Amino acid sequence: LFQKWVNREISNFDYLIQLNTMAGRTYNDLAQYPVFPWILRDYTSEELDLNNPAVFRDLSKPIGVVNEKNAKTVKDKYENFEDPLGMIDKFHYGTHYSNAAGVMHYLIRVEPFTTLHIQLQSGRFDCADRQFHSIPATWQALMDNPNDVKELIPEFFYFPEFLENQNGFNLGQLQISKEMVNDVVLPKWAHSPEDFIYKHRKALESEYVSAHLHEWIDLIFGYKQRGPAAVEALNVFYYCTYEGAVDLDALTDEKERKALEGMINNFGQTPCQL
């Protein structure tokens, strides 16, 4: 598979889907949904110039520290973390780049995710300001907040419908601008959801991404996922998210086990290391 990818016999998209599958990710489990990278950082220009390296996200860094400004905060958090009981290892992020709530967040406009989101929010839509309402605003929030580390889902590269409120759901209105949340606000360079998907997919298959994608793969699926390389890369997540970190079968207390299972399901899971 790797050789095929290197020889450009399969696309970046297909390669990522295959890696996700090999690492146990599947569309059938929201807690282990396929994870894809944010690949661009230009969501404001009128035109998207894929020949300009500056429009791309730095794929060698976890999303939480793509903005240099966040690196110090993230590092300090890790270095100053002490668990008095000595059970919890140090970590850079208390949240995760892929979890069930995040998948529902992105796919809120299409069923069955709408219903699942409403169930998660105790029977109603979450408040409008927390909804996925704009791609530029979502990116900006990631850059401003080192605690928000959501990566993307494959749909961003092939499924324009999830960007439209075709079912006419009432998603509420934003507090400050009083704007109703409806279709997702697109970057200026995208003229329609289809145009966004077309250009975004083109960006994924671009020269720049082809040359740097392996850096992101190392972080998510490879050697920088855990151990000293992960510490150095500012890429350590809460211990419960790693495969084999918790032996659920060894927990005799049913309540404790249920609580931990719930946490793992909601918290996000790091893919199996390939």
TrEMBL record:
GO terms for cellular component: cytosol; membrane. It comes from the Eukaryota. InterPro entries: BEACH_dom, BEACH_dom_sf, BEACH_Domain. Signal peptide: none annotated. Gene3D superfamilies: BEACH domain. The keyword Repeat applies. Residues 1-274 form the BEACH domain. CDD domains: Beach (cd06071). This is Neurobeachin-like 1. It comes from Manacus vitellinus.
